[in-house]
User: Fold these one by one.
Assistant:
Number 1:
Amino acid sequence: MKYDYLVIGAGVSGISSALLLARFGFRVALLEQASGPAPLIDGFVRNGVYFEAGFHYAGGLESGGVLDRSLSLLGVAEDLHRVAFDELAYDTIIQPESGLNFSFPQGYDALSLALQKRFPEQRNPITKYLGRVQEVTQNLPYYHPQAAFSPLSLAALHEQSLEQVFAELAISGELRTLLQVHCLLYGTKPSEVPFAIHAGVVDGYYRSASTFKGGGRALVKALVAACERSGVDLFCRHQVSEVELTAAGAFAGLACANGERLQAVNCVSTIHPKAMLALVPDSVFRPVYRRRLNALAETASAEIVFLRCERQRGSALGGEASDSYDFAGRNFFFLPSPGTDLFAPDLPLCERLLYLNFASSGGFTGAHECGITAILPAASEVAAGEAQSRFAYAEGKVQIGEQVRERISGLLPELGAGLKVECVATKKTLQRINLSPTGSLYGVKHMVGQFNPAAKTRLENFFLAGQATTAPGLLGAITSALMAVGEIVGHDKVEALRREVVCDG
Amino acid sequence: MTDVEIISLVNDSLIEEFELDESAMVSEAEIFADLGLDSLDIVDMVVVLEGLLEIKIRDDEGLREIRTLGDIHRFVITKKRETETAAD
């Protein structure tokens, strides 16, 4: 079987690329090294409880919202049911030492009011900041593909950091702390992240925060079903080991570690750019391009602890929500002590920023127990070479789990004695699953001054997609597929499809 | 840094980073037709030149006017001098 396109990586960007290419009439195969598609988005079930792995909540899923429209374009919106996060307190930020306790309510108006009530003296900066987020997002070329742009014009857009905007608008103190906490969602510091990238992420959440009924797993199921409907062939356990070229140096096909070889005229790689480089013969790309890709900065790593707890009603913790409620559909951000760098990765586990996500219970209502994900950002770096025995590694994981469980029990005693550690993921786990050399959570950063790779490459008929090329998150992944397919079939055709399907033009 | 030094630095760097032929590095050489660069290389060229000379050219309109190696030299020398003046 000869395909028109082979897509490396069946994550969200890979599946999205495949679906869009199929829509334009191409015969497409998707190759995934893991045993199932989209392993970062798919959750897992242990002892009867569902845990989210990489999908915690999403912004812009409201009807007509930017993510909702993107899912419509992929033909999966109708298979998914949105479950809204807590209307008044989807994100609760707590700094135990200072007494800071603020909950983000859904919607720009509600958020603006809540912030102004808490920080009456910074009313003006709050309004300006929220206005700036909306304005910048409205004009993001990658969310509005009709706007012509080049990597160089993107660089101009990505010149101002979030920190610079805070300084310009005189946003300081606790307000600044609250507004920068969402940097955790893409693993880049306020001083590094372009304001436009940050705005593109938080704009969605400021509008609406939700998950899917059935969680990340439901999204993966819907995407796979769409592949089946579109005639896209999905090959899991197919780790690509080499990009093969014709005698003339054009793309010819892919060799897999299992010995299989697939031929095609074209290819879209959606894996980590550094992992992609390792598959392509050195002669293909210029030294300067390889160096640029190898130098791309990595997002933060993390220790991730998966816990189970009995479902029960908790007492009020956050801001306006004064009635008792279930924690389902909420996130908690427990901040390190005041004066400490919010994202300091080298603090001990009991002092580091702790993110707690109760999304899986939101996705799976009715179960006796629910799964909780705790994420503590860690430094992203190539692990030191010292050999660690399997036993020592497993023992280390148990200790991490217990420390984090104890801390959570102290912070949220409502969770009760039934709180148990199910399993722990470390930098090493992330290295393996994310194909990131440093075990980063989200792959490469989007950073002021850095040029991330574009969809087009020097190797004819070989394109790149994935969050690294465009923007972070689910939305970034889908948008990257739109960009890559736009390079392939013409951006005007992708735009026409968007108008036809989404009818928002 | 003199103009001659800048030109030599730029040429050496382009030869190495883009695997260019040393004998082709004459100022009238067209970067696309003669040196074999293409539009995809422009981003990398900007990154190299910015790093090499500690200048900022990524959003400069003048980039679009570049046709020959000599244009690159003139462009970066002007930029370098502007940066030096601004720093004084």
Number 2:
Amino acid sequence: MAKQGTIAVIDYGAGNLRSVINAITRLGYQPRVTRCAEDILAAQMVILPGVGAAGTAMTNLAKLGLIGIIRRLAEENRPFLGICLGLQVLFEETEEGGGAKCLGIFPGKVRRLPPGLKIPHMGWNQVKQRVVHPVFDGIPDNADFYFVHSYYAVPEDGTVIAGETDYGITFCSAVARGNLVATQFHPEKSGELGLKIYANLLALSQLRN
Amino acid sequence: MLTKRIIPCLDVKGGRVVKGVKFRAHRDAGDPVELAAFYNNEGADELVFYDITASSEERGIMREVVERTANSVFIPLTVGGGLRTVEDIQRMLESGADKVSVNTAAVLDPTFISRGADRFGSQCIVLGMDARRVPGADPLRWEVFTHTGADGGRPASLDAIEWAVRAVELGAGEIVVNSIDADGTKSGYDVELLRAISEAVTVPVVASGGAGTPEDLYQALVAGKADAVLAASIFHYGEHSIHDVKEYLNRKNIPVRI
């Protein structure tokens, strides 16, 4: 596999990027950790990681001038992976922290997991694949992935739901629209199958050239 | 369905894995990075490293161990032991830990939990709790102990259940409940303690201390209502493989990742 081109990991102060960098490095690519719009636009693939609070994350993205940049990546169907909070901020708004406006790339809202079960939803859970998409190449249906989150996205447009997971309710655990993919779970913490998700997306980004 | 997590715990001293029996009499069970890779291949759902040294130079060795592990093993890694400041937490996260477990320092200053959670998120702040049954108490009560690594530990004059509830309010995202009475005995977890904590808090509870057989893990998950089980010596000395334990639990209808 040719391993040229850059993979930009957006550093916007939303948690630890170490494991994402380790996963990409393991696959033979050199990630560029950046908050610079130019780097992001020049990259072959862009990763928006994130743990922590959605409101703070949006404030930081706004301060860094990256909101328009991420929307543009989506409009141009550029290879993109959002992870965890990086999935949630793609929607219109979240009820986390009393409510915050998000990027609005996907219509829909982010809600808190219902009471009655342990929160955060932490551990390995199955992802039911709802679409055929290159991101799932070589990954069995209902494979286990590692989750840790207290909020979940409710897409208005059901066709963007790529995967679903049961935790008291059935929620959207992966979204995909063209080359724009996001997962509620952490592929970089999901063993070999998680690395396969990264490999699939990196292969997709190579196809562009 | 969310699976129950099986978590091998490696006590690390000077870059090597040791396992205490009642926190004493250590024997060497290997290289932490190699063991981490081995357990990952066997199906461990997460890994925990406890740094049982306190000196700063050995803390540097620990960070290097964490770094090498995180470069080669892609499952969640928690690091605990001797973390005193928000900067200590930051250094471990930067080295590649996904979560940190705080214990004595959180008892001495509970705002340590909230400061850590505010800065890094609740998902990476684990409360590690060492608790011991109050002799003769009826109904059952448990007291929190600190400094358990060095000697027999010191009573903290804190009720274990109250402390668990408070820690969650402060921002702990998970609680590892270690029974001092059961630790190292291999005669089973303190199931009553686990159930009491699990019913009192809304965050995941991890059972620790006392695992001797796969049935002990089953009891912690079912009777103790734990979300995950931590064990050390039953895995380290090859008495039971993680895979075998998971097969056992699966046969008893416990959801596990196989």
